[in-house]
Request: fold
Amino acid sequence: MPSTDGSGWALANSVGRNSPLHLYSGDLLKMKLPSQTAGPIPYLDLPAQMRSIRKDIDAAMARTLDHCTFCLGPDVAQFEKDFARFIGAEHCVGFNTGTSALHVALLLLNLGPGDEVITTPFTFVATSWAISYVGAKPVYVDIDDATFNLDPKLVERAITPRTKALMPVHLYGQPADMDPLLATCRKHNLPLVEDAAQAHGAKYRGRIAGTFGVMSGFSFYPGKNLGAYGEGGALITNDGAFAARARALRDHGSTQRYYHDEIGYNYRLPNINAALGCAQLEQLPDFLKAKRRLFERYEAAFTEVPHVRIVAEPEGCRSNYWLQTLLLDTSAAGQRNAILAATNDAGLMTRPAWILMHRLPRYRECPKMELPVSESLARRLINLPSSAFLIRS
Ligand SMILES: Cc1ncc(COP(=O)(O)O)c(C=O)c1O
Reply:
């Protein structure tokens, strides 16, 4: 376990130049992270976040316990209003999870068996689940190594008569390259649904991620930049008809009490999670600033280091830096697993990237283009400790 001595983590001293750790630790571990005391360096630090807004959280919980409207209560309505304003969209419909919001978004586009949705293999599995839930197939297209997101240059080649939508992900809070993706959609008359589950507050050319597609889905899973301390999600749209139908579908397909005109779901956002979401939304701007400061610290530490690249936002974009990452160059890729093992053994919580979607049993047979960048990045990426509370000043 690392301990601090005021000049950096003691772990740094234990790393020899010949260790696979030296690429990483010689620089990362000498960083001064003032708020860090003894103990493991966490990956994400929910207890610290909770402590920072505990009073607001207690008040939000008490509100729900007082009025006892536990499902789709007043705080859901308030959260929908506040989040729509924050995002700059007409409608926010609260859901119990980000996955269910994405599922309903694809249902609203009438997707079904035989349809294909172009998306990325470099994501959390829920992106693909939403496509599978409506009976459609994901078609995987490679990513751009600057953003880790769908490479717009490659999308057009994957379009077939079966293609019914495009679903980019703003991975780790880094916006996908929306202008060319939207241009391709316009050219082929395809709707674009954004998986914005990780993208709270990220910006692409001054506009907030999650407002580019016909619909987008956000997640408020704990640990996200805006987590609801439980499950939570939202469907965002500027289309009133989509929003109205999404409201019905999340609540058993009901447009009036006990009247159900289509098969619906119980995808309701609990009031208590919405109340906690409201409390966190207030502190989101400060939280995003802290994430950026952590990124700047990592960037400063790694700029001169051979064999690694800290992954920064492309020009005109603002990442929300939800997860901060370090990319080993190909010559150092073979050391990745040893670095992960050694850092975790030493109490520095790092993780590898996702297992690529087409490597999962369920999606092995899915149509896919060549995916060399995804394959390479998946072997070279290290997710760094990303808690906003590692740095306070
Ligand atoms: C890229 C992506 N899409 C979708 C989801 C699904 O969100 P939820 O866990 O709220 O269902 C997640 C959650 O982590 C995600 O990271």
Remarks:
- The mean pLDDT is 88.
